[in-house]
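Exercise 4. Each item below gives a protein and its sequence. For each, produce the structure-token representation.

Item: Cytosolic arginine sensor for mTORC1 subunit 1 (Urocolius indicus).
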Amino acid sequence: ELPPSEFMQVADSTWLVLSVVSNGRAPSGSQATGVTKIARSVIAPLAEHHVSVLMLSTYQTDFILVRERDLPVVIHTLAGEFDIYREESGESVPVSCDDVSNGFLKPKPATSRTLHPVQSPQTRFCVLTVAPDTLPAIATMLIDVLFYSHSPPREADASSQDLDSITFFAFSLIEGYISIVMDAETQKRFPSDLLLTSSSGELWRMVRIGGQPLGFDECGIVAQIAEPLAAADISAYYISTFNFDHALVPEDGIAEVIQLLQQRQDSGR
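Answer:
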């Protein structure tokens, strides 16, 4: 319904959303959350079969977006590990590999994946939610933060941007559930009694993937971060955007995360 505009870029693919439900079968003793939970069972296999994904972690759960044309590959790849359902008129209908006939499995590429540089600003972030009935009380503040509080990035030196601090604000509204990621300073502008966080109230640090816009065709970008964090059992929220990917990890674990990712970068050279 948005009118065409020279100022709006639209990716030429249609994407489908995968929601992974664990059924309570998470490995015993594992406390990791976010993308780490599904790294081995979903993210890594899709990367190996050359499927590009977008990842969206929210306060409530995690979603994986795959291109509609890759659906046959996705189903063939995940059917051995998961029961797969599609939603039709609000009902969950089982899907099998035999139901997919509009494509073939892609051959695995012979080339190795590109390991993108990672950067970690000093900014501290909060992962929050808001009760839907209290949203009107902070609507004016949300609009101000989203559209008026920050100057646009300078195009000329975006790739060499100083990442001591970073402007990042993510708002999602999915099936009535609200999820917000904001920096700790911005949080102070909101009424504290309306923003809900986990009982521990932890702060998060960000790892931004890519020195320049990543595009949508490359596979393995999410896996580059998710696999080593899963191996170390480190929780992470992951948010793909139009230009870059971002992983949020607990503040007290950022040094270990940077070390793990640097080791992976060095071993890939």
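Check: The longest strand covers residues 177-183.
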